[in-house]
Amino acid sequence: MHPRPVPEHDLRLGPERWTSHFVAVIDAEPVVCVRPADAVWPHWSLYRRPHLHPDDYLGTLHPDATPGQPVAHPGH
Q1: What confidence tens digit (pLDDT) does each residue in 5-19 have?
Q2: Which long-range contacts (CB under 8 A, 24 or more apart) does 20-23 make?
């Protein structure tokens, strides 16, 4: 059995179009974006690809107040 492929998203599409688990290119590097199941406000944890190990944690992606303009907050 093979793991389900993780979709790739263009962050310019806006957070309303992002799924809970996807790959995006940030600063020319592919990163895995995972939204916690208990998240009240939309945010995604970022990890180096392909693992979701704590040592691979890069920071948190929060949508900006302006629709379609995401902003990354490393280390949060």
Answers
A1: 677 878 777 777 778
A2: 23/49
